[in-house]
Every structure is written in C-alpha cells, then in structure tokens.
Amino acid sequence: QVQLVESGGGLVQPGGSLRLSCAASGSIFSIYAMGWYRQVPRQQRELVAAFTSGGSPNYADSVKGRFTISRGNAKNMVYLQMNRLKPEDTAVYYCNVDLTDHRRLWGQGTQVTVSS
Fold first, then answer.
1. Per residue, what are the HEC states of 62-105?
2. What are the pLDDT digits (tens) for 73-116?
C-alpha cells in the first residue's frame, strides 16, 4: 500500500517561498502520477500542479511561472517549489498520487498561509 508523507507547509510573507515535499512509500512502481492540490474554505479542491512520469507537468493558471513541480531522482519524492507567494495562495495543500490501477491517494494536507 502506497502511503504519503508531506512536509514543508507553514507561514510565509507575501513574495516569499516555500518548498513542499511529498514522500511516497510502498509500491512506488504502481504510481502513475504525483501532484499537488489545494483547498480553501467553502471551495472545491483544485489542481495546483501534477507530474506524470514521461509527461509534461500541468499547472493551474494561477501558479504558472511561480510554482515548479519536480520529482526526486528515485522518483518516490515529489516537490512543489512555490515562489513569489501571494495571499491568495493560502490554502491547505494536499499531495496526490494516482496509481496505475486508477486509485487515488491523498496526504493529510499541510497548511500554507501567506500573510504579512
């Protein structure tokens, strides 16, 4: 069973940076894609960035040019480098794994707060 461990969330001032990490353990060979979603109160969870092995990363329009998703060399890690953060980036960020059998797994979420 694949499990996800997230880290890197916190409080940062506007214009600052954070790096989120998600470590997948278990059957990493069953992973089709890894990515990040975020959710704010009273809104649906939305895609921030996703990485598919052998494919191009996908980004929400609101984060293009500021966020970068990447995968570790061992491909059991996925990162989200967030630069030039804005208050509207404040949300709970969730690591997501899509398995080759079409199951979707989620981390517990990490709070990112951008505020002065």
1. HHCCCEEEEECCCCCEEEEEECCCCHHHCEEEEEEEEECCCCEE
2. 777 889 999 999 999 999 999 999 998 888 999 999 999 999 99
**The pLDDT value given to residue 72:** 84
Strand partners, 97: 34, 105
Residue type (1 letter), 66: R
- Residue 107: left (phi > 0), alpha (psi -120 to 50), or beta? beta
Triad 50, 16, 74: Cα angle to 5°: 40
The two tokens of residue 116 are: 């002065």
**How many other CB atoms sit within 10 Å of the CB of residue 66?**
15
Please classify residue 31 by burial: count the beta carbons closer than 10 Å to its beta carbon, then call 0-12 exposed, 13-18 middle and 19+ buried. Answer: buried
The pLDDT value recorded for residue 53 is 64
Cα distance from N-terminal residue to C-terminal residue, the chain: 40
